[in-house]
Specification:
Blueprint: H1 4-9, E1 17-18, E2 21-22, H2 36-48, H3 59-79, E3 87-90, H4 93-108, E4 114-118, H5 127-136, E5 139-143, H6 156-159, E6 164-170, H7 182-191, E7 195-199, H8 211-214, E8 218-222, E9 233-237, H9 239-244
Parallel strand pairs: 4-5, 4-6, 6-7, 7-8
Antiparallel strand pairs: 1-2, 3-9, 8-9
Helix pairs in contact: 4-5
């Protein structure tokens, strides 16, 4: 039998009382509360291993770097990526999507091209593409959903053409709860040479993902919806595509190149 009280004890905040009643939290779609193990790990990092990652040769820096790279490797395994080099830590899903919208579109989007977004996207997977299209003189095309909340993938052939550069689609809608069939979206996009950017913020929580089997080109999600601290996210990208993208942010570790 599912032990609710045991699960509640994993989350310290659920010991808080609100209006003199035990807290009941129902907003995990927006952000998940943090279990004790995450709170303790972050606290231990600050107390015992705090140092710059990839930026020092002393013990603490090397230890922090090893933990950081181990975390990348675990994320790569969790989402089915081929290697940790395909996992980029960012400030969140919005930062991940903006990274692709700026870096990919800066090099590969031209005036007269088009970007296809689904009608059920979160604004984090709409606005970056609108701004990219505005900068480059490209067109935004919208793949609609029907009255039942089903993404109308049968309309894709009419929307995609040889000037389609990006198709942006959610794995699971944060408002409708719809989990669209991404197979026809990805297959049709690749048929015309477009890259597919998947917003996995809700999908990675509800069912997970195998990015290699899915064959998406980029996949973004937030840490804070998966019990991680606020302010961290993941951008998965196929290695050859990441290698072709110019830097989005500069400085930091950019010493030799």
């Amino acid at each position: 039998m599912f032990d609710v009280e045991k699960v509640r004890r994993d989350f310290p905040i659920l010991g808080v009382r609100v209006y003199d009643k035990p807290l009941v939290y129902l907003d995990s779609g927006a952000t998940a509360q943090k279990p004790e193990c995450v709170i303790e790990t972050v606290d231990r990092l600050h107390r015992e291993s705090n140092a710059n990652i990839h930026r020092g040769v002393h013990f603490l820096s090397e230890e922090a770097t090893e933990m950081y790279e181990a975390a990348r490797a675990r994320i790569a395994e969790y989402i089915g990526a081929e290697a940790r080099e395909e996992v980029v830590f960012t400030a969140g899903a919005t930062a991940s999507l903006n990274t692709v919208a700026y870096a990919w579109c800066e090099r590969f989007l031209r005036a007269g091209d088009n970007i296809v977004v689904s009608e059920m996207e979160h604004h984090s997977n709409i606005v970056p593409w609108q701004l990219a299209a505005e900068r480059k003189g490209a067109e935004i095309r919208v793949l609609p959903f029907d009255e039942e909340g089903r993404l109308m993938t049968e309309r894709l052939p009419a929307l995609l053409d040889g000037r389609t550069r990006v198709v942006a689609v959610t794995q699971a809608s944060n408002t409708l709860g719809t989990r669209p069939d991404l197979r026809p979206v990805i297959d049709e996009a690749h048929r015309v040479g477009a890259v597919v950017v998947v917003d996995g913020c809700q999908g990675v929580v509800h069912g997970g993902v195998d990015v290699k089997a899915l064959d998406c080109d980029f996949y973004a999600f937030s840490g804070h919806k998966l019990y991680a601290p606020t302010g961290i996210g993941v951008l998965y990208g196929k290695r050859d595509l990441l290698d072709r993208m110019p830097p989005f942010l500069s400085g930091g570790e950019m010493i030799e190149s």
